[in-house]
C-alpha cells in the first residue's frame, strides 16, 4: 500500500485559504474613493468666485487702513458676536 502517492487527486493545501483571503483583500484595496458634489455646493462655488473681485477690493482697503493706522475696531460689535459663544 502506497501512502505518499505523488499523483493524488483531491489533496488539500492548508495555505490555499490564506492565498484566497489575500487575493480578496488585494481586490478590495484597489477600489477608489468617490466624491459627489451637490448642486447647492456647485452653486456656492460659482457665487464665491463672482464675489471674489469685490472681496479682493475690500481686503485691499482693509490692508491700506491697517497699514496707515486708520483702522478702527468697534469693541462693542466684537463683544456682541462673542457673547453667544461664551454662554
Question: What's the SSE blueprint?
Answer:
Blueprint (H helix, E strand, L loop, with lengths): L15 H14 L9 H12 L1 H17 L6 H12 L1
Brief rundown of the structure:
This protein is mostly helical and 87 residues long. It has 4 helices and no strands.
What keywords describe this structure?
mainly alpha, 63% helix, single chain, 87 residues, elongated
H and E order: HHHH
Q: What about the largest sheet?
A: none
Number of DSSP helical runs? 4
The secondary-structure class comes to mainly alpha
- pLDDT averaged residue by residue: 79
Q: Per the principal axes of the C-alpha atoms, what is the gross shape?
A: elongated
Strand fraction band?
Answer: under 5%
From the alpha carbons, calculate the radius of gyration and give it in angstroms: 34 Å
Secondary structure: helix percent: 55-70%
Uncertain spans, ≥5 residues at pLDDT below 50? none
Tell me the distance between the termini.
89 Å
Instruction: Say how many strands there are.
Output: 0
Notes on the protein architecture:
- With 87 residues, the chain is mostly helical.
- It has four helices and no strands.
- The protein has a domain at 39-86.
- The longest helix has 17 residues, at 52-68.
Amino acid at each position: 500500500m502506497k501512502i505518499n502517492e505523488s499523483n493524488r487527486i483531491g489533496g488539500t493545501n492548508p495555505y490555499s485559504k490564506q492565498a484566497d483571503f489575500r487575493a480578496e483583500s488585494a481586490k478590495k484595496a484597489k477600489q477608489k474613493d468617490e466624491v459627489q458634489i451637490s448642486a447647492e455646493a456647485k452653486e456656492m462655488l460659482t457665487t464665491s468666485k463672482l464675489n471674489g473681485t469685490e472681496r479682493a477690493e475690500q481686503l485691499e482697503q482693509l490692508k491700506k487702513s491697517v497699514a496707515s493706522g486708520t483702522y478702527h475696531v468697534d469693541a462693542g460689535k466684537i463683544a456682541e458676536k462673542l457673547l453667544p459663544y461664551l454662554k
